[in-house]
Design brief:
By secondary structure, the protein is mainly α. It has helices spanning about 1-30, 30-60, 80-105, 110-140, 145-155.
């Protein structure tokens, strides 16, 4: 279980790194609101990694940090970014579900309890990205709509 938790800590750090790369991509395109949304998303993912870090240490385990792969840095469209973001969140959900299954199989009740927060969080993560995809589909090529969505996403604050 400890190896799996350490592997997932690494996945959360990668998520943070990926979303920071996406934030930079949007800022280069002068879509600062989209960039802000992803900067906060990056901070959230780093926070998730730190929850794993804390839990591993609190339960007497040893944190084993691994190399972080370089994230993608360029996309063809805003929609591509969000579709890939949704796919990434679904991947993280699958990994969390595997961790829960492993904890249940090993009768590791403390880890199972710890992971339940992440189960709920992943439902929210996927829903948030799907909502943005739906808005992008409604907007289509409308520059005014894109401007408004950029402003809306830029209003996001860390919470």
């Amino acid at each position: 279980m400890l190896d799996s938790l350490n592997n997932h800590l690494n996945e959360e750090v990668y998520s943070s790194y990926l979303y920071l790369s996406i934030a930079s991509y949007f800022e280069e395109k002068n879509l600062k609101g989209f960039g802000q949304w992803f900067k906060i998303q990056s901070q959230e993912e780093y926070g998730h990694a730190m929850k794993f870090y804390g839990f591993i240490n609190q339960t007497g385990g040893k944190v084993n940090l691994k190399a972080i792969a370089a994230p993608k840095t360029n996309w063809k469209s805003i929609m591509e970014v969000f579709k890939e973001t949704l796919a990434h969140e679904k991947h993280i959900t699958e990994l969390i579900n595997k961790l829960v299954g492993q904890a249940m199989l090993e009768k590791n009740y403390a880890t199972n309890n710890f992971l339940q927060w992440f189960v709920t969080e992943q439902v929210e993560e996927e829903a948030n990205v799907e909502e943005i995809i739906n808005k992008l589909e409604m907007i289509g090529d409308n520059k005014g709509g894109l401007y408004m969505l950029d402003r809306e996403l830029g209003a996001r604050t860390a919470g």
